[in-house]
Design goal:
Length: 107
């Protein structure tokens, strides 16, 4: 249906955008930024694998096939993107704390 198509187009645009931003960061030799954008790109592409895994779970089987597929795709997209941002946020906070400790001579 149209929601399924919109989700796929959104996922494709996000993947292309994330990859392009990663390549731009690499060309500018901004390696941390490059790594973050490429992780986002990788996780956007992994949505298809997560979707297939979720599809095999015996959940919501009484739902119509199209509705269930759309719901699972939307949820896997949301979870993958949110989880990626949480990991990147944790890395920024963790690295900042380590850098402050090193500067203070604690580590």
């Amino acid at each position: 249906g149209p929601v399924w198509a919109a989700l796929l187009v959104t996922l494709a645009v996000y993947t292309l955008l994330f990859t392009a931003r990663g390549l731009i960061a690499a060309r500018r030799r901004q390696w941390r930024s490059h790594a973050a954008w490429m992780l986002r790109s990788y996780m956007a592409m992994m949505v298809f694998a997560w979707f297939r895994l979720a599809w095999e779970l015996p959940l919501l089987e009484d739902m119509s096939r199209g509705t269930r597929a759309t719901l699972f795709l939307g949820l896997t997209m949301l979870l993958a993107l949110v989880a990626t941002e949480l990991v990147l946020k944790w890395r920024r906070v963790h690295h900042s704390a380590v850098e402050r400790a090193e500067a203070a001579g604690v580590v």
